[in-house]
Design goal:
Layout lengths: L21 E2 L3 E2 H8 L22 H14 L2 H6 L10 H8 L35 E8 L18 H4 L7 E8 L4 E8 L4 H4 L7 H11 L1 E9 L6 E3 L10 E3 L4 E5 L18 E3 L4 E6 L5 E5 L65 E4 L9 E3 L11 E5 L2 E7 L7 E9 L6 H7 L6 E10 L8 E11 L10 H6 L1 H6 L9 E6 L6 E5 L19 E4 L8 E4 L5 E7 L8 E9 L9 E2 L13 E6 L5 E5 L9 E5 L10 E5 L5 E8 L4 E7 L26 E7 L2
Parallel strand pairs: 9-14
Antiparallel strand pairs: 1-2, 3-33, 4-5, 5-6, 6-7, 6-8, 9-10, 11-12, 12-13, 13-14, 15-16, 16-17, 17-18, 18-19, 19-25, 20-21, 21-24, 22-23, 24-25, 25-26, 27-28, 28-29, 29-30, 31-32, 32-33
The structure holds MU-OXO-diiron and calcium ion (2 copies).
One calcium ion binds next to β11 and β27.
């Protein structure tokens, strides 16, 4: 194995962790340890009192809300009318103009938005299960070649050089940018590594595992081509034809843009400019821009940093205030149970040496897959937090980006560009559009309930200004400070603490915004309930056929529906309602937009969202607390079937379902089973899954589903 880091430093003691049993609902210890650094073992980092409790809703009121919601059904539809016809981006159409594909495909419409499939039942199978009438194929697996010269995959004989050329681990976001009628570039995030499942036990030293893990993070750009079966897609195996393929990793230079670029707090020993960062970490979800690039969120970046000696003091803000919680508000600190120990192979992960390095992560990054030589960008104007992802729409000509901060009790955000999108498709237009995320206004959301007398969780919302590129609205903080310490800035202006905001995405058909709020074990405990976050105890199951039992907090999550005032996403106000209160339909707290509960699928822990051409919402799940595998669900948002949640597929044992993308006129559904087999007690030798069954160990893979022919 080659090594860029020859210095061997003192290893820190690793606190033994409980390696058996389940933690935090259905999550395995592996997921908690490697994905988010056991975030739930600590108090939520948001210690503010920003709850804005309009009315705390007890279980009796919640039951009434459900009944009343069922009776009125379309209460939210009335609100939704204002959003109809809002201007939205069309990534496929506009991106096609940039590439060779001048228009929509001519192959006719698919059926994903209209098919009357039979719902996939809850199950624990080690397989991708789709409804009768549908098929799927694997597009690319962990370890498959991405860049020319990649060796055959062998987890027992990996080198850093091999990992740099192979598809990374734990595929999350999937974005597809068309380059022709039968070709496209697929961009995939690699969120995190899981050495217990990836490598034969004892095969590699801790330093080797650290370096292999470092390089498996990042993104892949992969050329794909249409398969013979309508709707199918495969990776281009002839890499001489795939010249835009790229592995983005810690050897990749990112250019820092926006108002905080070059700030003292972003400078390190190896980057005196504060404008160049090597690599991107823990990239979770993302979104397409209308100009054919992808946005990707750096999420649980905090877990990679540690200290070899003293924990640095927080910085002093420009007004002289000591920001003592600069690190802890992001969950950054001395971490004796750090499983990766990256500080032993590179000083940049040692805050005792490099106290500013953590400030260089937690951003939204932009990658232009059509320009493999371009430097990806980190956009400070979109704020720094645990970004789930970023989804763009175009409203009144402006780029509007919706974002979630995935932490218990953290916030929803929005960015509106100062300048307008240039849709002409020229190179000059592209250059202009690539500057749009550098200037504009960053907002955080406050949701106020209108009371429970109406029987539904709904109300009005306000987008509170945090800063523009040249003006701060947060007392005592400069623009750069607001952007580098966005959580602190938001704490000061009174937003609403939400239940782990994940994807926030605009429906291109009705113009409404949908936000997945995945769960919050602390709701009703350290974080009080409010009308937007009403569930304080949930029904869960330990297995598909087991009895419902009660757990504290919001264990199954919500889907929030927001309607921009006047259908204008640049405005500062909106209406909101809970579209789904997820869970088992038999549980009293659940609500499915008023649809009869006996006719919907069980759904738990919504995570990533997408829409088909009909405007149906597709929801992938992560961490199903109802005892079955995670999956992907379709639900209409309008008409008589509004709220009819139907499970379209389930992913293999131990996996979450990531990256859903309905593509190509409802004919192809990309999805990404991440961490198959990540079950407590599993190892490389004793896996809990062997999916996709090409080896005797599991391999995270991107798939595509389509109608059977
Ligand atoms: Fe990586 Fe918020 O899930
Ligand atoms: Ca209400
Ligand atoms: Ca996610």
């Amino acid at each position: 194995m080659t090594s860029a880091h020859t210095e061997t430093r003192r290893l820190l003691p690793i606190t033994p962790v409980e390696r058996d049993g389940q933690r935090h609902g259905s999550r395995s210890y592996l997921t908690c340890l490697y994905r988010c650094g056991n975030a739930c073992d600590r108090p939520e980092p948001n210690a503010s009192d920003n709850t804005h409790v309009q009315e705390v809703i007890g279980s009796a009121l919640r039951r009434r809300a459900v009944l009343r919601g069922a009776a009125v059904g379309g209460g939210a539809l009335v609100l939704g009318a204002a959003g109809a016809g809002a201007a939205v981006a069309d990534p496929v159409e506009v991106a096609g103009k940039k590439g060779k594909n001048k228009g929509r495909n001519k192959l006719g419409k698919g059926v994903l938005g209209t098919a009357n499939f039979r719902a996939v039942p809850p199950n624990k199978r080690d397989a991708v299960v789709t409804p009768d009438g549908f098929d799927h194929n694997v597009v690319i697996r962990w370890g498959d070649p991405v860049v020319a010269g990649a060796p055959a995959f062998d987890p027992a004989n990996l080198t850093v050089d091999a990992v740099k050329k192979q598809f990374g681990y734990n595929n999350d976001y999937v974005g597809v940018v068309p380059t022709g009628r039968n070709t496209a570039l697929m961009v995939v995030n690699h969120e995190y590594d899981d050495p217990d499942l990836m490598y034969p036990t004892g095969r590699y030293s801790q330093a080797e595992i650290a370096e292999l893990g470092l390089y498996t993070h990042g993104l892949s750009v992969v050329q794909i081509k249409r398969g013979k079966v309508d709707g199918s897609w495969y990776r281009e195996r002839n890499l001489s034809k795939a010249r835009k393929n790229r592995r983005i990793n810690v050897d990749t230079t990112f250019r820092v843009t926006g108002p905080a670029a070059g700030h003292e707090l972003l400078k390190t020993g190896k980057d005196r400019s504060g404008r160049r960062v090597m690599g991107t970490l823990n990239n979770c979800a993302g979104g397409l821009t209308p100009w054919g690039t992808i946005l990707s969120g750096e999420e649980n970046f905090n877990q990679y940093f540690n200290v070899s000696g003293e924990m640095p003091a927080g910085p002093t803000l420009a007004d002289g205030t000591a920001l003592e919680t600069a690190y802890s508000r992001y969950g950054i600190g001395a971490n004796p149970s750090d499983p990766r120990q990256w500080l032993t192979i590179d000083d940049r992960f040692d805050m005792t040496t490099e106290p500013n390095e953590p400030h260089r992560f937690g951003w939204i990054v932009q990658v232009d897959p059509n320009d493999p030589d371009s430097l990806p960008r980190k956009h400070t104007m979109l704020g720094r937090f645990k970004h789930e992802g970023a989804n763009m729409t175009v409203s009144r000509g402006r780029a509007v980006v919706y974002m979630g901060d995935d932490e218990r009790g953290d916030y929803l955000y929005k960015f509106v560009s100062a300048n307008k999108v240039d849709r002409r498709g020229s190179k000059r237009a592209h250059r202009h559009n690539m500057t749009l995320l550098d200037e504009g206004t960053l907002y955080v959301a406050k949701l106020t309930g209108d009371g429970t007398e109406d029987g539904v969780s709904d109300g009005r919302g306000e987008w509170i200004k945090l800063c523009t590129h040249n003006r701060s609205f947060v007392p005592g903080m400069t623009v750069a400070e607001v952007l580098i310490f966005t959580r602190h800035a938001a704490d000061k202006v009174g937003p609403t603490r939400m239940d782990r905001p994940e994807d926030v995405e605009v429906n291109p058909v009705n113009g409404k915004v949908y936000a997945a709020l995945t769960n919050n074990s602390n709701r009703g405990g350290s974080i009080p309930a409010d009308e937007a976050n009403p569930v304080t105890s949930s029904q869960v199951r330990s297995g598909p056929a087991s009895e419902l039992t009660t757990a504290s907090g919001n264990r199954n999550g919500y889907v929030l529906e927001m309607t921009a005032s006047g259908g204008d996403h640049t405005r500062g106000t909106f209406a909101w309602n809970l579209f789904l209160i997820c869970g088992d339909p038999e549980a009293p707290e659940t609500y499915f937009a008023g649809f009869p509960k006996e006719s919907v699928s069980r759904i738990s822990c919504p995570d990533n969202l997408t829409f088909d051409a009909k405007g149906n919402l597709w929801i992938s799940t992560d961490g199903n607390a109802l005892g079955a595998n995670d999956g992907l669900f379709r639900v209409p948002v309008s008409g008589p079937k509004r709220g009819e949640v139907k499970q379209f597929l389930s992913v293999p044992r131990g996996a979450e379902c990531c990256g859903p993308l309905v593509y190509d006129g409802d004919r192809s559904l990309f999805f990404a089973p991440q961490h198959p087999g990540e079950v407590s007690g599993a190892t490389f030798e004793e896996p809990a899954s062997t999916w996709p069954h090409s080896n005797d160990y599991p391999r995270p893979s991107v798939c595509v589903a389509y109608q059977r022919r």
